[in-house]
Amino acid sequence: VPDNDQKIVDEIRKGDTRSYAVLVELHKNRALTLGVRLVGNRGEAEELVQDAFLRAYQNLGQFRGDAKFSTWFYRILYNLCMTKVARRRGKMSYFNDENELDCMLTDPDEVSVHEKLEEEETRQILAMEMDLLPEKFRTPVTLFYVQELTYEEIATVMDAPLGTVKTNLFRGRNLLRKRVLARMKDEVNAA
Amino acid sequence: MNKIPGHCTSEQIQRLIDNRLDIAESAAAKEHMDDCATCRQSFDDLLLVDGSLKKMPLENTRPDFTRALMAKLIRKAKPSWAFVLLENAASVLGLLVVLGIMLAVFVWTGIVDSTHVSQSQSVANGILSETWRSVATGLHSSTSWLMSYLSLGQGTGVFGILMFVLVIVGVLAGVDRLVGRRFVHKT
Fold first, then answer.
1. Is pLDDT of B15 > 90?
2. Which residues pair with A92 in a beta bridge?
3. d(Cα B110, Cα B103) in Å, to the nearest integer?
4. What are phi and psi of A89, to 5 degrees?
5. Angle, nearest 10°, between helix axes A151-158 and A162-190?
6. Exposed, middle or buried: residue B168 (CB in 10 Å: 0-12, 13-18, 19+)?
7. With a threshold of 0.80, does the pTM exceed it?
8. Cα A168 from Cα A162, distance rounded (Å)
9. Partner A contacted by B17 (CB < 8 A)
10. Mind listing the pLDDT tens digit for each residue in B116-172?
């Protein structure tokens, strides 16, 4: 995909506007997934994704090709989403479960529950728990798993120090693992 | 190879899954997990969550998302009404310039007698409004100025005419490029 992206960007720069549709097709669903995770509302997310694509097109001249197009584009989308979130901050409250992070290793007797759950159920639990992650963990975790960005690319998108990204990603993934496993256990016990 | 004292840290397990441990660290962690059920279980759990997250279905945009976006993009790329007005005015002005050049060439080559032009001008003056007369006078003055500036007179020949046409075409092309870049492509 990255190599294709660069080729498409080159074509657009040569004047082939229609090639941009190919780029949009390649990234729209991942972008929407990120948007939904960040703003929590599908309608708003779709508008933001559209806005991000428009801005990316308008500013394509500023894309130097140092990073991948996707990294550059997600940075635009991330900034738009964060602006949206910041505007309504105060109205919404986020969970803050950092205290839960102390317990990292789980008791082996309490796990192995996932084998009893269907894959679809696992995904549903994951999606739900991911939405419930604190914002500062949810963003790097989403960029890592959905956008499949590296630590360095996530730092670029979020304009954050690499160390902070690594820490938040580490904490977010552990928190997610802990919650998902606990939820799975509940599901199995309830069944 | 360094043995891992106690248990693997969660960070080590994550880095192992992400292939971010160096060869020695990776080997030590794997060896430790062969004998440690607790760390092995943690590794399996994280791997499960990790794998499931990577396989999570993506959100899908509405079917006409790309089409709507491209339509919006093209609409935005369309020139403003100011540009359209300017473009049309430039076209009319360009046409007048071309007619003026043709007239000047005809007069210069003797195809049209300059007295006929004056007669036509006086007839036109009687018919057309004051505005049109101003434009015609302005055009006449400007073509006269251009002709004298380029030393385009009797005996200059084909080369002189070519130079004259080239300058006009060059100016028009330059204006078009400048205006086009400023108003059309700035999207």
1. no
2. A89
3. 10
4. -65, 140
5. 110
6. middle
7. no
8. 10
9. no
10. 666 666 665 665 566 666 666 777 777 776 666 665 555 455 666 676 677 777 777
Q: What is the ipTM of this complex?
A: 0.72
Instruction: Determine contact: B61 vs chain A, CB below 8 A.
Output: yes
- A158: Cβ contacts below 8 Å, ≥ 6 apart: A78, A139, A140, A143, A165
DSSP A98: G
- Cβ proximity of A95 and A180 under 8 Å: no
HSE-CB at B49 with a 13 A cutoff on CA atoms is 31
Structure token digits, residue A188? 């199995």
Q: Is the dihedral of CA A175, A178, A180, A186 positive or negative?
A: negative
* Alpha-helix residue ranges (DSSP H) falling in B4-113: 10-17, 23-35, 37-54, 65-77, 81-109
Would you mind telling me the total number of residues written for chain B in this entry? 187
A127 CB neighbours in chain B (<8 A) are: 56
Amino acid letter, A155: A
β-strand partners of A89: A92
The 3-state secondary structure of A144-159, one letter per residue: HHCCCCCHHHHHHHHC
Q: Hey, are the CB atoms on B53 and A130 less than 8 Å from each other? A: yes
Q: How many CB atoms lie within 10 A of CB B163?
A: 14
Instruction: Count the Cβ atoms, other than its own, within 10 Å of residue A68.
Output: 18
The nearest CA of chain B is from the CA of A108 a distance in Å of: 6
Tell whether B4 is within 8 A of chain A (Cβ).
Answer: no
The DSSP letter of residue B63 is T
Half-sphere exposure of B56 (CA within 13 A, CB side): 30
